């Protein structure tokens, strides 16, 4: 079978330059001629539906097929790929790449405005591969002290033994970040919104610091998605996601992605190969299907979160509410022109502390009491007894986790129903049970 006739190997061009002792493409992709390639000037709603779709030339299927195979027939294109270091660009073995992966990677790259993307088996697989690929032994990394717990543990526990030193700083303090940079600093790693306090760092300012230092800026855009902000447009070099969350959107898969310029993504892809964190073809299919409705879901979740935050801010049973739309501390660096919205996460502190917060959650009838976020269903949890339970009370207080803090991932339910449910649960927890 001549696979070049149906577009495989399209990205494999002769004369690739050598880079880090491996031949690397300096093009977008990997992609075949059967992957739908659209103008990046199209609206994100359109790109989410159409970008990257594999238009099968045999069956005419309008949806990307599931290429559920571990290996592919070898032919001359395969041998050329081995010889020229182009294993990303020709289907040979699914750990190297699979057309199901190519489709979802192209869709995400289009949404983020990137040249290339690599899909991984989880968000942490994407983050770990990115950190290892873009730093060397003896290098230095700067990150936030309140970065996601999995990322924090990777940086704090694993990096020292791997010969990387890490400095943790306040993500809002550009002066402290600049002061933390050293001659050997290779990477700045921050989030577009922090978890769970929803602080919004100045991405443009971070990009300037990274450029001045000759370092790379990685932004975890899980909480906002490219529908709300595109960090690459603001100067970031690489964007990572836990695609388990908003990108997948249905709480039914585990995946991650790293996206940016191809020369960086190639290095991350090579690290993924060594770690073995390749994304399964079936999950690629589920993720691509989920992303098709991303813009619609995010629009509703943006609106629902703002409405819920507004109600909570007026509730006598709530001591504090954390959401970018309300402004205040942690959101001074926000430039409205850079954002289309702020996602579906709301943080708030139930008056009376952890005991009342637990009571409140037990009286909710619509949201699920569960970890994770970004699904169509609302999820609610307490960071103090889940994601940040390993911290002392003093450590929690340092990063803003006060007694009674609730993390509410708002879904796409009717917002009136959600507000009514929250209102009833708060009143029951704070009034009725105190009698």
UniProtKB/TrEMBL annotation:
It comes from the Bacteria. It holds the Pfam family Cys_Met_Meta_PP. GO terms for cellular component: cytoplasm. GO terms for molecular function: homocysteine desulfhydrase activity; methionine gamma-lyase activity; pyridoxal phosphate binding. CDD domains: CGS_like. Its EC number is 4.4.1.2. The keyword Hydrolase does not apply. It comes from Embleya hyalina. The modification N6-(pyridoxal phosphate)lysine is found at residue 245. Its cofactor is pyridoxal 5'-phosphate. Signal peptide: none annotated. Belongs to the trans-sulfuration enzymes family. GO terms for biological process: transsulfuration. Keywords: Pyridoxal phosphate. This is homocysteine desulfhydrase. It catalyses: L-methionine + H2O = methanethiol + 2-oxobutanoate + NH4(+); L-homocysteine + H2O = 2-oxobutanoate + hydrogen sulfide + NH4(+) + H(+).
């Amino acid at each position: 079978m001549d696979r070049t006739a149906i577009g495989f190997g399209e990205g494999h061009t002769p004369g690739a330059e050598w880079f880090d002792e491996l031949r690397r493409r300096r093009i977008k992709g990997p992609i075949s001629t059967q992957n739908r390639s659209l103008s990046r000037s199209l609206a994100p709603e359109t790109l989410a539906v159409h970008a990257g779709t594999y238009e099968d030339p045999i069956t005419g299927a309008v949806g990307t097929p599931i290429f559920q195979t571990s290996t592919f027939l070898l032919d001359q294109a395969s041998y050329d790929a081995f010889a020229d270091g182009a294993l990303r660009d020709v289907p040979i073995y699914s750990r190297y790449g699979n057309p199901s992966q190519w489709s979802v990677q192209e869709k995400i790259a289009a949404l983020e405005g990137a040249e290339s993307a690599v899909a991984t088996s989880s968000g942490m697989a994407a983050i770990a591969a990115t950190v290892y690929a873009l730093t060397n032994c003896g290098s230095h990394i700067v990150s936030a002290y309140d970065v996601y717990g999995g990322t924090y543990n990777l940086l704090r526990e694993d990096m020292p033994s791997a010969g990387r030193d890490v400095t943790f700083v306040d993500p809002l303090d550009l002066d402290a970040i600049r002061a933390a940079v050293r001659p050997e600093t290779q990477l700045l790693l921050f989030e577009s919104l922090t978890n769970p306090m929803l602080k919004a760092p100045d991405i443009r300012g971070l990009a300037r610091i990274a450029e001045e230092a000759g370092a790379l800026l990685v932004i975890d855009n899980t909480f906002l998605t490219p529908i709300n902000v595109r960090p690459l447009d603001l100067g970031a070099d690489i964007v990572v996601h836990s695609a388990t969350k908003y990108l997948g959107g249905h709480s039914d898969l585990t995946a991650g992605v790293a996206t940016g310029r191809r020369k960086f993504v190639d290095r991350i892809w090579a690290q993924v190969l060594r770690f073995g964190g390749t994304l399964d073809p079936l999950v690629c299919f589920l993720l691509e299907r989920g992303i098709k409705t991303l813009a619609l879901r995010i629009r509703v979740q943006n609106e629902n979160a703002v409405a819920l935050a507004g109600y909570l801010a007026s509730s006598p049973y709530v001591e504090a509410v954390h959401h970018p739309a309300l402004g205040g501390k942690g959101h001074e660096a926000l430039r409205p022109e850079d954002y289309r919205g702020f996602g579906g996460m709301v943080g708030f502190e139930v008056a009376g502390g952890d005991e009342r917060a637990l009571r409140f959650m037990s009286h909710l009838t619509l949201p699920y009491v569960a970890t994770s976020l970004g699904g169509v269903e609302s999820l609610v949890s307490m960071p103090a007894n889940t994601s940040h339970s390993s911290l002392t009370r003093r450590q929690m207080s340092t990063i803003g986790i006060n007694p009674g803090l609730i993390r509410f991932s708002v879904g796409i339910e009717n917002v009136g129903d959600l507000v009514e449910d929250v209102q009833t649960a708060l009143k029951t927890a704070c009034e009725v049970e105190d009698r």
